[in-house]
Amino acid sequence: xxxxxKVEKLLSEKNKIERELRNIRDNCNHSKQTIKQVIxxxxxxxxxxxxxxxxxxxxxxxxxxxxxxxxx
Length: 72
Ligand SMILES: [Zn+2]
Prior knowledge:
Layout: H1 3-26, E1 33-39, E2 46-52, E3 58-60, H2 64-71
Antiparallel strand pairs: 1-2, 2-3
The structure holds zinc ion.
Zinc ion binds near residues 25, 28, 30 and 57.
């Protein structure tokens, strides 16, 4: 498969996946949350956030004491 066809296919799959994720997240009440390291954007930069256990959405920032507890 030519690269441009492959990219086109991947992008359309990505759109489909993102739409599905958004759908799940919109319907989730984020009742169970855990502090986790998440990857931000396209780079490999990670940050610590409250993440929903059900749908993996980033739901908030931990405060300083929560962060200390998480980092040990
Ligand atoms: Zn959720």
